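Re: that chain you flagged

S.,

Sorry for the slow reply, it's been a week of failed gels. I finally had a moment to sit down with the sequence you sent. For the record, here it is as I used it:
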Amino acid sequence: MDIKITSGVGRASTEIVAFDEALRDAGIGQYNLIKLSSIIPPKANIKIDKEDYQKGKVGDKLYVVLSKDIETVEGKEACAGLGWSTEIDSKGGIFIEEKGGSEENVRKCLKRGFERSFEEIEDKLKNNGINIETTSIKCKGKPACAIVAAVYEHETWKSNQ
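Prediction finished late last night. Pasting the C-alpha cells below so you have them in one place:
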C-alpha cells in the first residue's frame, strides 16, 4: 500500500474557506475526507508526493491522517506538520500530528512526541528514524490555513443500482 504525504496552504475571508483553499492546494479538495488515527499499516510505502489527487469523482471518500492549523491573527503563522516512523521489518508504524507557532516549533514538538512514544513502544520504530513534513502560511488580514495530510486511499461510493 502506498501512503502519500501532501501539503497545502490557503487564505480566504473565512476559516472554513481558508481550509477549503488549503485542501485544493494539497490536491485533495474535491473529496469527502475520512480522518484516520495514527496507525500505519504493515508494509506501507510512504512518500512525499504533491501530485494532483483530483483523479476520483467529486464527493468520493478519501482516507487521511490530517494535521491542520488555522491562524486569524495578523502576522502570525498557521503551521501544520506530520511526523512518521515505521518499523525496520515493515510491521507498520505511527504518525504524529502537530500544529501551531512555526515550522521550527512543530518539528520540535513532533520530535518530543516521538521520544515519548519510543519510551512506550518497542525500539524497532526508533531504529528506523523519524520523518517530518511541515508547511506554513502567514496570516495577512484574512484567515490562513496550513495542512499536511497522509493520503491512504480513495474510494468511490457504492451505488444502489
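What I noticed first: The domain at 2-155 is CATH 3.50.20.10 (Pyruvoyl-Dependent Histidine Decarboxylase; Chain B).

Talk soon,
D.
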